[in-house]
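Example protein
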Amino acid sequence: MPAPSAGRRALSTADGSRRRSSTFARVGLARAVGRTQAGHMPDLLRHVPDDIAELLARGHGIVHVTDARPAGVVPSRLTRLVRSGRLVRLAPGCYADTAAFDAEPPWERFRLRARAFALSAGPTTFLTSWAAVATWGLPTAGRPPERVRAVRSSATGSSVRYTKCGDIRIAPIPLGQARRHAGIGIMCPEWAVADAARSGPLPAALVAADAVARQGADLGETVRAMAGWPGVHRARWVSHHADPLAESPMETLGRFTCLQFGLPMPVSNAWVGADGPEFRVDGLWPHHGVVFEADGAVKYDNRPDASRIVARQGKREWRLRRAGLEIVRFGWDLAWRGRAPLARTRISCSYRLPARGMSKKIEYEHIRRG
């Protein structure tokens, strides 16, 4: 976002006295009104002042003391806003809008914590692993980790520095892997995914890896640059199985189910039809005459045209079956939490030929336990 004009900045500074008197008025009102029945400050009292909101917008949801000073916002004012419940301190010198932060989903709160940690740690520190995955806006699955991770370059040796807000691995950083993005240090998307795969859940890592592969990134080269790091064999496995043709997390998880349970691998987003390419399916087993469609309520909920979508879906399914194809459908719950029944009762039972792929299952079990 472009920096505000000098006139706007001067206005924010000049009306400071009015904002202070307004703040005091709100505090007085708060003492009179007290807390709501739920125990929270009324919405009016939790609203951040306009100049702070502007700084938050410019800072991608975080205001840092070094950015606040030029706008005439002193640290003591930020501290008062924390005490009043309107700002929350996420890292030394870094603040977020309390109401907005509390309302965000878990991964966005994790992104804000990661950004605050990067700003407080300084320009020589680079977000990595899931913190970088979330910051780059790559797809995620499951819950975010408790800890934010970063890396800081060191010519010799390797160690980990644990802080209250996150962990910093001090180690040599391969050339070309560290970036500057939106005012903070961050490892490139390929490194972020590979680092997340080293110790994180493999299904979620493969979801992010598919997205990076779809962007044309070379995960293999990054994994080779990570040689010697603990758990790099897991990153190598994810890199090997990343598919640039997968277009959604559920498609990835459907494919991961096949890897996990030793089932034949589908072709992602293949064209099929009775007389030629007519429909594109999420996955196709060409030698088995089976397709999978990763869908569910997420496509239809709260849509005024839901009935038309369902009707089109029924016609599409009829055409696919007319072409001689069996259809396996699944939603998020099966793809994320129920992969065993998905493999056993949906995919395997649809095959017309014996399943081949136990070597994939053995390979997955070795990586998972390694």
Notes: The chain has three domains: 1-8+36-103, 106-241, 249-369. Residues 249-369 form one domain. Confidence is low (pLDDT under 50) at residues 1-41, 353-366. The first strand starts at residue 63 and ends at 64.
